[in-house]
């Protein structure tokens, strides 16, 4: 009986999370670290 | 049951259809047919009696890891509604590419995941987490050196892992990178001599559902 089934089944899953958007704390730390290494590499 | 001589699937009561699809889904997981598992378990979830909270939780216990493998994350509402909190750190690790968080969670929750029969399934997410981290490295590298955006230096991947607290030597980093390519998580090739991964200009990171998930 379809009426016994649950209608609230839409929007349970998120699909568009995997993008090129990098703006979290870790990316900033990584960018700072890689920039530092680059400078050191050029200075040497 | 799928044969034509058999009675029409929809002629069966919903409870039997749900039970049948649940086991079809679980079998498909064992056979590493994750698309089939997803369809069967989604059917079971959608047609489950709305009051059958325990059965829904049971379906979701397997459906969530399958969905994660295919790149679909449960919404916070779904997690809250069914008490799926054991997956929260795994999901956070996938989102941010946090290999350390993934490793620590798999270790801390090992007993629980083995008991629930999802450990080996979740273990397969490790490459999705590595892929996400590599994608972050790719993005940061592209900002620093836009003209060399398709050439990701593997030492930068190593630096990212070390920053998270996952020290890997260069051979291990290259091994991870090679596996990511081999399993179709990344489109590119490795220049061993130059310690560089050269990735495709267009769409270097195809959707997770296109990765090769069988061993």
From TrEMBL, chain A:
Signal sequence segment: none
Keyword Nucleus: yes
Coiled coil stretches, renumbered: none
Compartments, as annotated in UniProt: Nucleus
Any one GO CC term of the record: proteasome regulatory particle, lid subcomplex
Keywords: Nucleus, Proteasome
Keyword Nucleus: yes
Any Gene Ontology biological process: mRNA export from nucleus
Role summary: Component of the 26S proteasome, a multiprotein complex involved in the ATP-dependent degradation of ubiquitinated proteins.
Family the UniProt entry places it in: Belongs to the DSS1/SEM1 family.
Protein name, as recorded: 26S proteasome complex subunit SEM1
Species assigned in the record: Chlorella sorokiniana (Freshwater green alga)
Location of this fragment in the whole protein: 32 to 75 of 75
């Amino acid at each position: 009986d379809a009426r016994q089934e649950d209608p609230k089944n839409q929007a349970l899953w998120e699909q568009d999370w995997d993008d090129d958007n990098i703006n979290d704390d870790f990316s900033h730390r990584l960018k700072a670290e890689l920039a530092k290494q680059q400078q050191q590499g050029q200075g040497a | 049951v799928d044969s034509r001589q058999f009675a029409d699937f929809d002629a069966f009561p919903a409870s039997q259809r749900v039970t049948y699809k649940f086991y079809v889904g679980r079998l498909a997981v064992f056979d590493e047919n994750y698309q089939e598992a997803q369809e069967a378990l989604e059917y079971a979830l959608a047609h489950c009696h709305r009051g059958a909270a325990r059965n829904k939780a049971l379906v979701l216990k397997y459906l969530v890891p399958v969905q994660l493998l295919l790149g679909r994350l449960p919404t916070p509402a779904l997690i809250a509604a069914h008490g799926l909190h054991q997956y929260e750190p795994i999901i956070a690790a996938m989102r941010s590419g946090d290999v350390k968080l993934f490793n620590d969670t798999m270790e801390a929750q090992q007993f629980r995941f083995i008991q629930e029969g999802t450990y080996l399934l979740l273990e397969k997410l490790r490459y999705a987490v590595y892929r996400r981290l590599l994608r972050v490295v790719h993005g940061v590298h592209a900002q620093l050196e836009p003209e060399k955006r398709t050439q990701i230096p593997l030492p930068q991947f190593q630096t990212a892992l070390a920053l998270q607290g996952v020290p890997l030597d260069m051979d291990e980093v290259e091994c991870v990178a090679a596996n990511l390519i081999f399993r179709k998580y990344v489109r590119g090739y490795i220049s061993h001599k130059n310690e560089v991964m050269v990735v495709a200009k267009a769409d270097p990171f195809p959707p997770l559902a296109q990765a090769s998930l069988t061993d």
